[in-house]
Amino acid sequence: MRRIVLLPLCLLLAASLLTACSRQDGLQDGYYTAQAAEFDFGWKEYITILVKGGSIISVEYNAENASGFIKSWDNAYMQTMLHTNGTYPNEYTRYYAGQLLEGQGKGEIDAITGASSSHGSFQKLAQAVLEQARRGDSSIVFVDTTQ
Asked: 118, 123, 111, 124: which is closest to 77 by C-alpha?
């Protein structure tokens, strides 16, 4: 009779230890944000991720100006950038965010021609936000994206 009672307890203990170990190495549940430390050409880029069950389930990548206006909502900027660079913020922000979500932070993020500067910033911000998620630190981390 004792073995029957101890077996479920041992299995429960083993499962909880495995869960605790995997969370230390993986991503902890919560919202995490990494933001550029300074404005660059009038915009400050940021990434916010939502982790649930140890997996990234949502990624927002964008930039805002000093008044809080979101770059991908700026139609005049979009038209100018599209004609000069062949892409625009609403396109490349979704593309980069989608790659981070799909790869769960483990894959390489491919650059889009015409948005290589943002690609570099995205890489730095993604690395910082993933580190915050590994530590379970939900404070906003500020990253020097200009180097």
From this structure: 118
Q: Is the pLDDT of residue 73 over 60?
A: yes
Residue 34 pairs in a beta bridge with 47, 141
Burial (Cβ within 10 Å: 0-12, 13-18, ≥19) of residue 118: buried
* 71, pLDDT greater than 80: yes
- Say what the pTM is: 0.78
User: CA 55, CA 104: separation in Å to the nearest integer?
Assistant: 7
Unique residue bearing structure tokens 């590994």: 134
How many angstroms separate the CA atoms of 120 and 25, rounded? 26
8 Å CB contact between 49 and 58:
yes
Determine the 3-state secondary structure of 104 from DSSP. coil
